[in-house]
Amino acid sequence: MTTTTASTPRSTMRPSPIATGILILGALYCLVPVIWVVAASTKSASELFTTFTLFPSTHLFENLAQLSAYRDGLFWRWMLNSALYAGVGAVASTWVSALAGYVLAKFRFPGKSAVFSILLTGVLVPGVILAIPQYLLLAQFELTNTYWAVLLPQIISPYAIYLARIYAAAAVPTDVVEAARTDGAREFAIFNRIALPMMLPGLVTILLFQFVAVWNNFMLPYIMLGDDQLFPVTVGLSGLLNQGASAPSMYTLVIAGALVSVIPLVLLFLILQRFWRVDLAAGAVKA
Length: 287
Prior knowledge:
Layout: H1 2-12, H2 17-40, H3 45-48, H4 60-69, H5 74-106, H6 112-124, H7 127-140, H8 147-155, H9 158-171, H10 174-182, H11 187-198, H12 200-216, H13 219-224, H14 233-243, H15 250-286
Helix pairs in contact: 2-15, 4-15, 5-8, 5-9, 5-12, 5-14, 6-9, 9-12, 10-11, 12-15, 14-15
């Protein structure tokens, strides 16, 4: 009996070959395109379609120099625009989501369930569907083809509000909020000085999600913007890719640009992964 009881937990902890195989396939599915971009970015235009796909070459810095020289450094303008859209948009969206999530979690008001149901419906609606109505709305205020046309629609995110509502309900004790009210603190001060620091680990996760979503967004800026000086890197590289049909040398610039555009996201994950792990562990315990 003792032997059977002791061997059962060890046997259940063995990794499943099927699950391991699926994870390996998933990892290859995600990593092979990245490896291809790294290898292709080192090739010249003549080598790009004539050499083995994953075999690197020695023209990386030459490609980067050509990319930087393209129209007096327009690519780096696109990178700065992406940093602006993603940075400002993610911070503003995170703060608005935290406030909305805190209100939904800690306040009672008429229509609260209806508001939350509408919010959940918004999670299921793809952002692409909303791009045209948002364009028509902003056109009424003559805000299209401006930075505001990309920033304003990114601030409200139903999914981020949903996550903030769940985390506020778990991380902010109602007793602490009531004690602050008893001491005379105003609601906005309670949120900024008490609730917001308690929600910080969860907000880091929301910030990360929003930054990546805005950085990778293509359809919204593609519809809203007409001036290439305002383009984010996604739309700018798409324009270069379209020029590749008549000028094949543009393909190497696009691939080099794609490689450079991934670097900020990798750095952000490396910097914030410690906070992200804390948040996931906290959520698991509180669940």
